[in-house]
Amino acid sequence: MNPAQGAQEVMDGLSRLNGVTLLRDVPLSHYTRFGIGGPADLYLETADPATFAQALAIVRSGGLDWVVIGGGTNLIVADEGFRGVCLKLTSNLISADGLRVDVESGATLQALVDFTVVRGLKGLETMTGIPGSAGAAVYGNAGAYGHSIQERVRVVRFLDTGDAVHQFADREFGNVECEFQYRESAFKHNKQFIILSATLEMEPGDAAALQETSGRILALRNRKYPPTMRCAGSIFKNFLLAQLPPHVVSAIPPAVVIEGKVPSAWFLEQVGAKGMKRGGIEVADYHANLIYNAGGGTARELVQIVSELKDRVRRRWGIALEEEVQYVGFTEPARTA
């Protein structure tokens, strides 16, 4: 079977599925917060996990490359786009039973935070304003102000796509099996695992107090990362102080360290990151770890600035900045993002 014939058979198979949106040559810039990225050969989204699994089986049977995306907040898509099929699961139900909350992966993290806060369920209020989906929050162990979602996760249900074309299985992990670390999880390191839903265990709280905390944090976050700004929030992970070399630790002012972490922004400030520009891509002049598309920016320009900043910090400090973002359509196709 030649590639063109295989692609047509995949298209035909996907078009026969019920409850899907199927688009050809759709710019992925429409699905990323950066507003950057060329077209995918095919784009499919569905709210039904079973249909999603069927679609992925069809894609794999046809031998096409594929990538699964969430809310697109932490994606950098190549200007050339993605040669293959981009899939998105949009199931977004949220429900509660006492202190237990069940959330499907396609729900926004903000919807989940709001759902818990108004019900007096404590534990996610500091994550208000973090963009993206609930599934992506689990995938990247999202967090803020000293807390992360791993503290609340009890069970994660996921599709294990395995190594063979049709050997899919619905599985679940408990908290320990998720292997959460700072901005990391087992799902981030096993791209064949596609998160479907999660069960969270909350604490009782006062709804009014939680709403006050959430509102205050949201106002702060919106000043730093305006909702209309085309960015991924902080682009680099912060550093764990305990993992830095002694010569670096000795140079860091104690006031910079927050809850055992050193902001990447501090290192970036020392190497003149603020206000850097490359075409339509800029580093904020008030936050060295905030890179955004000021208008007309390209993925090439964005990657160039990211690479330049990593190189400056490596030369100055001998340490490696690590991105929170995921790359799609560059050299090795990402399997989930």
Please supply descriptive tags for the structure shown above.
337 residues, alpha+beta, Uridine Diphospho-n-acetylenolpyruvylglucosamine Reductase, domain 2, Uridine Diphospho-n-acetylenolpyruvylglucosamine Reductase, domain 3, Uridine Diphospho-n-acetylenolpyruvylglucosamine Reductase, domain 1, five-stranded antiparallel β-sheet, four-stranded mixed β-sheet
Number of separate strands: 21
Helix and strand pattern? HEEHEEEEEHEHEEEEHEEHEEHEHEEEHE
The number of helical segments is 9
- Class based on secondary structure composition and strand pairing: alpha+beta
CATH class of the largest domain: Alpha Beta
Detailed description of the structure:
28% of the residues lie in helices and 27% in strands. It has helices spanning 3-15, 49-61, 109-118, 134-139, 186-189, 207-224, 246-249, 264-270, 299-317, and strands spanning 20-27, 39-46, 66-69, 75-77, 82-89, 94-97, 100-104, 121-122, 143-144, 147-148, 153-160, 169-174, 193-201, 203-204, 231-234, 239-240, 261-262, 277-278, 281-283, 290-293, 326-328. The strands form seven sheets. Strands 6-7-13-11-12 form a five-stranded antiparallel beta sheet. It has a four-stranded mixed beta sheet with strand order 1-2-5-3, covered by helices on one side. β6 and β7 (100-104) form a beta hairpin. Residues 333-337 have low confidence and may be disordered.
TL;DR of this structure?
The chain is of the alpha+beta class. It has helices at 3-15, 49-61, 109-118, 134-139, 186-189, 207-224, 246-249, 264-270, 299-317; strands at 20-27, 39-46, 66-69, 75-77, 82-89, 94-97, 100-104, 121-122, 143-144, 147-148, 153-160, 169-174, 193-201, 203-204, 231-234, 239-240, 261-262, 277-278, 281-283, 290-293, 326-328. Helix content is 28%, strand content 27%.
